[in-house]
């Protein structure tokens, strides 16, 4: 499928030349994101590749996540938007402005094609990752036959109190970066480009990653003070990543081959109650010590877990892959603090993000077990939920987000 005229113009002369010449200019960015490490927090990650960046990419420090509702009913307008977004994303992730003329290079009588608040800032490791919700596969765009079985609605889990207004969505975009202004700038410009065709349904800012996606990263802590994601799937686990992260054409949706399924959960913590809980009870609940992060009965964080040594309902035990048919998740969540709730309590917690090959076999059984018996539920509540199909990566400048879905 060809790129629209408007998108070609948005790419600028260099982008147009790349498309016309078979995207030769884009080849320098065609690194495999699964193994990409930026040299510093200021440097860019490759945009083009077999898989989307922002999944196994070493998790950055900041997040701006947004879910959009598509407001146009025209298939051609949605296609054009995805092309324009892809062109902008390719520029933004490399530290450039969203459009060819930037914030100040266009005619003074017209609106700039970049909002300008990231002028002078480096790429800061920005990644942009797109996903499609089940609601996009209704009768508006002729996509019903391509709805993946893995996008089946998540079941209602015991105890959850989801807020519909901050759940779901037709399309999501995850912006991760080491500078919050860079992440916010990227989402702001995609929303600006999408005006009249999409509207923001909900969004979430996050800070302080709560999982490591690479063995080169130290394990971070969540707002309860515990190391989080010690046994998270890592990009270096090549066989596990291939088996449990990336979708295959054999799974039933050929357009998703090389993609992954994203589950988001906004989990609010009753911080004040947790802070008055004894250290022993906190450690019993998690099944790890609070200082080192070692599992019960062990001395170091990465010592093998002895499930028999911890309480039957310890969080680590309930979530352990051995309890769910060896189901693994690639987690890359973030802390959030959204002010207070008007009663003097912090509106804070974890914005959970997990990628996997099939949520029905991975997230659902793990979460069902936790929802039923995890003592941590006394201190947390799930208030939003999202499930999205994240397509494979953009191969070159002649490609765009979701092209195979619309082929």
What does this protein look like?
The protein is of the alpha+beta class. It has one domain (62-103, 110-143, 153-397). Helices cover 21% and strands 19% of the residues. The chain is built from 8 helices and 9 strands. Strands 1-3-2-9-5-8-7-4 form an 8-stranded antiparallel barrel. Helix 1 (5-20) packs across helix 2 (75-92). The longest helix has 18 residues, at 75-92. The relative contact order is 0.19. This is Deferrochelatase. Its cofactor is heme b. It comes from Nonomuraea soli.
Brief characterization of the structure:
The protein is α+β, with helices and mostly antiparallel strands.
The first-to-last residue Cα distance is 7 Å
Strand order of the largest sheet: 1-3-2-9-5-8-7-4
Major sheet attributes: 8 strands, antiparallel, barrel
Structural class: alpha+beta
**pLDDT < 50 runs, ≥5 residues:** 1-35
- The total count of helices amounts to 8
Q: Roughly what is the average pLDDT, rounded to an integer? A: 91
Number of domains: 1
**Rg calculated over all Cα atoms:** 21 Å
**What is the succession of H and E elements?**
HEHEEHEHEHHHEEEHE
- Percentage beta strand: 15-25%
Shape: globular
Helix content: 10-25%
How many β-strand stretches?
Answer: 9
